[in-house]
Design goal:
This protein is an alpha+beta fold and about 575 residues long.
Length: about 575
């Protein structure tokens, strides 16, 4: 279960690189006019700290490139990004979240970005140096703030370019209603001071110790900060909202809100971006509610960080195709020139969905997510045993037969659900728990293209369970290639805004669609492998199945093992392009 250690290390590598707080000194010889103490007042009286960079001598109103972020790195990366905008004929503006840098307010990640970003855009649009056009770009949290700005559209906002955008409540700090742990330490990193708390953020051993002590003692999930010894008000605030309720919904566009988004969007994402569910959620909802709004996606074999730099040569041990690398800064500014200056559309955008096919070393495009594939491989989780695995059967199995699994939540030596894609390619997979299914060899080469989906028909002796499904390709040379995965809480499968407990010992259908999208060339002779399991490990909430709020459950609720029946008429459907 090393994958979350690697994820925490990754978060540190990405976020925990802060320059020392220093004043920005004006260089008389510099070609830039830098205003570093700009304070923008919001409608509710809060103050937003901002930096503005223009080229000296320019008196013509110009379009503005805005970044909105919680990460304060003002004397280094931030300032350089603003100069980049000025060098390309724009005004560069960066606005820091409420409470950050020079803002006197309290820091609450996510909660005020929709209103505050609107107010910042409104202020910018009224400045004499702005020509009335604003574009936004940036990754991760900075991607989220762009979508938050679209909760209520300001007429000056003309386009957004989000990279791996977060969607609070959907991906982080919870995925399909299961709280996962990376955001626990992140809250201290961004919330402890006006800049970034390097010392706490870099103390990975502290948080690993906390997680494993929680796991070993069997304490309630909401006691995590008591175990750590430092109150975490942000964590406690989040876990009060296990449903995707109004708390999360108001942070960014939700359902009908997407109808009023009428500006072109260019998004970037990665197959191995941990928060891919967040980023693609926005595009799929936009496609659903505002089908005439033009949007484009560039997606390839990238991680969360790798996407933001246009790709890396190796991700989780896998050497990517050479053609997958893109110049993300160049494409971003070509897009801004196209939208804000009537320039040419970036040549890489052949259609709405532009994706690199792993293993084929080529880019393809499609007019929609749905049109990425022209068929499905459908497999049933049969009870037929073939050597060490069960048969992944293309023919429907008996709906009354099932395979049984017992999970003892009091046993902390066994950890279930080894779903994290690191390494992406490996010689063997964990077969010590859960159920593994394998297909016959694929008879012709094809591309797995899109997000797999399925239906798990189960019966349990409790009221709830957290499930996991992991999808692999077993290549002809015996390598397991991690394709995609799903984790989710059964009681929220029908409606992520409202919990519906299961009836014990009654057959229930759990349908899932919110899985990670991928494009991968599948060789002739490869087999499809599916692992199903119960989510039980130190890296996320542990659902004991009592029906109580999961954050309040503890090892005292583990008096009875979970008995789960996996019915053989359960199935998965894998989108393919023949």
């Amino acid at each position: 279960m090393k994958y979350w250690f690697i994820l925490f290390s990754f978060i540190s590598a990405v976020f925990y690189t802060q320059e020392t707080q220093q004043p920005l000194i004006q260089d008389q010889e510099s070609p830039y006019d830098i205003q570093d103490n700009v304070m923008i007042k919001t409608r509710d009286g809060a103050v937003i700290s901002a930096i503005i960079v223009k080229k000296k001598g320019n008196i013509t109103p110009l379009p503005v490139i805005l970044q909105s972020t919680i990460y304060v790195r003002d004397t280094g990366r931030d300032l350089q990004s603003l100069k980049d905008a000025a060098d390309r004929g724009y005004i560069g503006v960066i606005a820091y979240s409420r409470g950050k840098r020079l803002s006197p307010n309290e820091i609450y990640p996510y909660e005020f970005e929709a209103d505050d970003t609107y107010d910042v855009i409104d202020w910018i649009s009224k400045q004499k140096w702005c020509n009335g056009k604003v574009g936004m770009y940036g990754g991760s949290y900075n991607g989220f703030t762009q979508w938050a700005a679209c909760k209520k559209m300001h007429p000056a906002l003309k386009t957004i370019v989000p990279y791996v955008a977060n969607r609070p409540g959907m991906g982080l700090p919870m995925e399909n209603n299961i709280f996962i742990n990376p955001n626990y330490e992140w809250a201290f990193y961004v919330g402890n001071n006006k800049y970034l708390d390097n010392e706490t953020g870099n103390d990975r051993q502290r948080f690993r110790k906390m997680m494993f002590k929680w796991w070993e003692t069997g304490a309630e999930y909401n006691k995590m900060d008591s175990i750590d010894g430092t109150p975490n008000k942000w964590f406690q605030r989040w876990i009060l909202h296990p449903s995707f309720d109004d708390y999360w919904q108001k942070m960014a566009p939700y359902k009908e809100d997407f109808k009023q988004i009428n500006i072109p969007v260019l998004a970037f994402d990665g197959y191995y971006n941990d928060s891919q569910n967040s980023s693609l959620y926005y595009l799929k909802e936009l496609e659903k509610y505002s089908p005439k709004t033009p949007f484009y996606l560039i997606i390839g074999p990238y991680s969360h960080f790798g996407t933001q730099v246009g790709g890396e040569e190796i991700i989780n041990g896998y050497k990517v195709d050479p053609v997958s690398h893109v110049d993300i800064k160049k494409i971003t500014y070509e897009w801004f020139d196209y939208i804000l200056k009537n320039g040419k559309k970036p040549s890489v955008l052949k259609d709405k969905i532009n994706y690199e096919v792993m293993g084929a070393n080529e880019w393809r495009s499609a007019s929609s997510f749905e049109n990425m594939h022209d068929g499905f491989l459908k497999f049933y989780l049969s009870g037929q045993k073939r050597n060490q695995y069960y048969f992944l059967n293309p023919k429907q199995s008996d709906k009354n037969t099932y395979l049984s699994q017992t999970v003892n939540f009091a046993d902390r030596k066994e950890m279930n659900n080894d779903y994290y894609p690191d390494p992406i390619e490996k010689d063997e997979i964990n077969t010590s728990n859960g159920l593994i299914f394998m297909s016959d060899p694929i008879q012709k080469a094809m591309i797995i293209n899109g997000s797999f989906l399925g239906k798990l028909n189960i019966a349990i002796n409790k009221k709830d369970v957290d499930l996991g499904v992991t999808l692999f390709e077993l290549t002809p040379d015996g390598k397991y290639f991690h394709l995609s995965y799903y984790i989710g809480r059964a009681s929220y499968a029908k409606d992520h805004t409202k919990r519906h407990l299961l009836n014990p010992n009654e057959k229930t259908s759990i349908e899932f669609t919110n899985t990670h999208l991928i494009s991968k060339q599948i060789q002739k002779g490869s087999r499809i492998v599916v692992a199903v399991n119960v989510n039980k490990n130190p890296f996320s909430q542990l659902n004991y199945g009592t029906g109580k709020e999961v954050s309040n459950e503890s090892i005292k609720d583990a008096f009875e093992p979970l008995l789960i029946k996996w019915y053989n008429d359960s199935f998965i459907e894998i989108p393919v392009l023949n």
